[in-house]
Structure formats: structure tokens, C-alpha cells
């Protein structure tokens, strides 16, 4: 059995079925790796009129410090990685960490 058969079809077909939201998926993946309660990570996406992608990240109450980091360094690193990812798509991305 091939790897594709074991894990389902990958690539563009899987992205088309899931709504093709790579920036949103990347933020979800990174945030879940940082927190103690990964099942409580929620990312909401809003597409602005000027082609900007606004992502709102919410996590469990006791995990906010982990995604913000000391002096905001972790939050800034997340923003940097996602901006680089969105640049590849020709889009601008903003991240808000919300309650």
C-alpha cells in the first residue's frame, strides 16, 4: 500500500476539499505546537476588501502567555512566519490574538 493510499489523497486535491486555506492552517499548526490545550486553538479567517487576510487566534485562557511570549516575541515570530507565507500567495496577512 502506497503512502498516498494510507493517508488519503494529498496535494492540490486535499487542499481543494479542505477549502485551500494554507495560511490559516499554518497558524493553527504553529499555535497548537505552542500551547498546553491544542484542542482549544481556534483560528477565524476574514478576507478584507483590499486582499488582506485577517486571522483571529484564540486559545485557552492559560495559554495566552505561550502564544504571546515574553515581550511579545512569540507573537511577533508567528506574524513574521505567516507574512512570509502570505507573500508567496501575493496577499497581506494580519494576526490578532483575541480573548
Offer a quick outline of the entry.
Helix content is 46%, strand content 19%. The chain has 99 residues and is α+β, with helices and mostly antiparallel strands. Helix 3 runs antiparallel to helix 5.
Structure, described:
The protein is an alpha+beta fold and 99 residues long. It has one domain (21-97): K homology (KH) domain (GMP Synthetase, Chain A, domain 3), CATH 3.30.300.20. 46% of the residues lie in helices and 19% in strands. It is built from five helices and three strands, in the order αααββααβ. It has helices at residues 3-7, 11-18, 22-34, 64-68, 73-87; strands spanning 42-47, 52-58, 92-97. Strand 1 and strand 2 form a beta hairpin. Mean pLDDT is 83; it is low at 1-19.
Q: Name the CATH class.
A: Alpha Beta
Question: What's the architecture in CATH terms?
Answer: 2-Layer Sandwich
Secondary-structure-based class equals: alpha+beta
- CATH topology name: GMP Synthetase, Chain A, domain 3
Would you tell me the overall average pLDDT? 83
Weakly predicted, low-confidence segments: 1-19
Distance from first to last alpha carbon = 45 Å
**Name of the CATH superfamily:** K homology (KH) domain
Number of distinct helices: 5
Side-by-side strand order of the widest sheet: 1-2-3
Amino acid at each position: 500500500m502506497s503512502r498516498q493510499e494510507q493517508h488519503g489523497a494529498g496535494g492540490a486535491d486535499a487542499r481543494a476539499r479542505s477549502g485551500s486555506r494554507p495560511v490559516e492552517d499554518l497558524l493553527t499548526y504553529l499555535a497548537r505546537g505552542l500551547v498546553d490545550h491544542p484542542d482549544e486553538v481556534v483560528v477565524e479567517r476574514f478576507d478584507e476588501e483590499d486582499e488582506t487576510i485577517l486571522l483571529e487566534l484564540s486559545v485557552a485562557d492559560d495559554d495566552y502567555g505561550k502564544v504571546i511570549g515574553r515581550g511579545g516575541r512569540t507573537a511577533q515570530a508567528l506574524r513574521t512566519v505567516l507574512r512570509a507565507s502570505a507573500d508567496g500567495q501575493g496577499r497581506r496577512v494580519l494576526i490578532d490574538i483575541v480573548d
